[in-house]
C-alpha cells in the first residue's frame, strides 16, 4: 500500500511514492550507524600515546658490556677462558708475557744492584756524619780548621743526595716490576665472557688493547626509547609507559591500555636535554613500582629491541582523529594539572 504520513499529506507527489522495504531498512541502518559513529567519536575516551622504539640497557655503567684490556704490552701466552664462560671477580682471563723472556730476571738483578747501592750510600753517609761530629769537636778545641769541618759537612750532603738518587731508582724499578707482575689479566667483576679477541694470541698487544668483552650478569635494566621531537615537549618524568619486548608475544591497543595483553608497565625516568644524531630524543624508562615485573634477563637481555607507548592525556576518539589528520602534537596539560601523575617536589619552608 502507498506510504502515508500526516506530515506529508499536503505533498501528493511525495505521498504517491512507494519506496521498497529494503530501501527503507537500509536508510534506517545508515541513520543508526551514523548516530553510533557520532556517539563513539564524541563519547568514547582515547588515551593519547607517544610511540617510540629502543632497546634494553643497563642503568649502572658498571653493569654494561665492557672491554677487558691488556695492562702491559706483550704477547698473550695463555687464555684461561672461552666464549660464554662465567667468571667471578678476580678470575684470570689471560696471561701476557713480555717480548723479552728474561726481562723479569734482569729487573730482579737491577733491583738487587740498587739495593746494594742504597746500603753503600747509607753506610758512607753514616761514616761522613761521624766525621762531621769529630771535626766539630776538634774545631771547638782549636785543633782543626773550619775548612775541614765544612768539607765534612759537604761530604754528608753529597752522600745524602746519592742515597736519595738510589732510592728514586729503586722506586722506578719497583714500578716496572709491579707493571710486569700485572701480566695476568683478571675479570673486573662477575659476568660472562661474551667474546675473545682471538687474534691477540698470535700478535703483539699494546697496553689498553681489548682482549675480551665481558657482559655483567643480573644488571639493573632500563629501556631507552627514541621519541619524536614533536611530542617531547609534553613528556614529563613519571609518565606511565606501556612496553612490548622483542620476542615476547603481545597485543597492543594504544588508546585502550586495559584491553592490551602481554604488555609491561614502566614510567619515564628522564629525558635527554638534546637530540641524538638521528633527530630523536632519548627517553629512559624504568619499571613501574607495584606493577608486574619485567621478564627475567634470560628472556629479555641487554640490547633487546623494545617498542613503547608513553601514555598522555585522555581525549575523545573524534578529537584524536582530527589531531592525527592535522598532524598536531599531543594534548597539552590543562592549567592546574601540571603535576598530575608526577610526584610533587618537596616544599621547603623558610623561617622569616
From TrEMBL:
Keywords: Membrane, Transmembrane, Transmembrane helix. The keyword Cell inner membrane does not apply. Gene3D superfamilies: 2.40.30.170, 2.40.50.100, Helix hairpin bin. InterPro entries: MFP. Signal peptide: none annotated. The chain crosses the membrane at residues 25-47. This is HlyD family efflux transporter periplasmic adaptor subunit. It comes from Sphingomonas olei.
